[in-house]
Amino acid sequence: MQTPPLDSPPRPPRSRTVPPAGWALGLCSALLLALVVAEWRPLIAWDEGVARTTHRWAVEEPGLTRANRVLTDWVWDTWTMRLLCASVVVWLWWRLKERWTAVWLAVACLAGSLLQQVVKAVVGRERPVWPDPVDSAHFAAFPSGHAMTATFVCGLLLWLLHHYGAARPVRRAAWAVAVVSVAGVGATRVWLGVHWATDVVGGWLLGTLVVVVAVLAHQRWHPRVPRNRPRPAGPRAALAGHPWRGRCTGRRRTTACCAAGTGRCARPTAEGTRCRSRRPDRARPGRGCGAC
């Protein structure tokens, strides 16, 4: 008598409630906003001390100041970050056919920019004023638009890399670029004397809060394929529930299923055989890995 196969226990549902880190970010952002609006003297005195020191350095080091202007006006500018976000939206829409996620990313970036402008208008904080300025900026100071935009754009893109299972070296490189960009743009704004230090901190906090809220919204409302949907017939049926499905290291995620930790594609066919190839994106039919 043959023993019927036992189904694996179902995975516990992922928590979609606000994590403690989200509440902590919201509390810190609200506290800093309240202190800035109330013009708390210890905070204002610290801002003024940092601003005087960095402005003196900026005047004494014109070469470093010019480098900071290039970085803040071109490399880490808010429009540069928005163009980066728009290019990823196009990639998600046309290449990966992830229409819902593309719209989600666009809406999240637009919501972050709108929140930034609303907070600036409500707080109305004046920027530092110098008799010998090294740079100029417009609109209110709090929060720093450059710092906030870089934070939520880099944060959302890092989460997308994790969500789509990018290779570990790619994720590490992206993390390094993101950390340097977010920290660097904040430093340039203070160095050039166009923001107080707390403007930059507020931009970092609010940008991170945008990322947390956007990720929670994606996890809550992203449409998912029902588990009880009938399997398609044919060779792809053997791949539908394969544990390697979706874990691809090739340049095209739709061309290979890769065994975790091996760096090789492993696509079982309807007969149960495996195709192996070091370059799944260039493999020929029958010799490499077909679509998962």
Structure description:
By secondary structure, the chain is mainly α. It is 56% helix and 1% strand. The chain is built from 8 helices and 2 strands; from the N terminus they run ααααααααββ. Strands 1-2 form a two-stranded antiparallel sheet. The longest helix has 25 residues. The two termini are 35 Å apart. The C terminus is likely disordered.
Mean pLDDT: 78
| Model regions low in confidence, pLDDT < 50 over at least 5 residues | 4-13, 225-292
Write out the strand line-up for the largest beta sheet, numbering strands in chain order: 1-2
Content-based structural category? mainly alpha
- How many β strands by DSSP? 2
Question: β content, as a range?
Answer: under 5%
Q: How many angstroms does the end-to-end distance come to?
A: 35 Å
The percent range for helix content is: 55-70%
Quickly count the helices: 8
Q: Roughly how many Å is the radius of gyration?
A: 25 Å
Query: What's the overall geometry?
Result: globular
- Biggest sheet descriptor: 2 strands, antiparallel
SSE series: HHHHHHHHEE
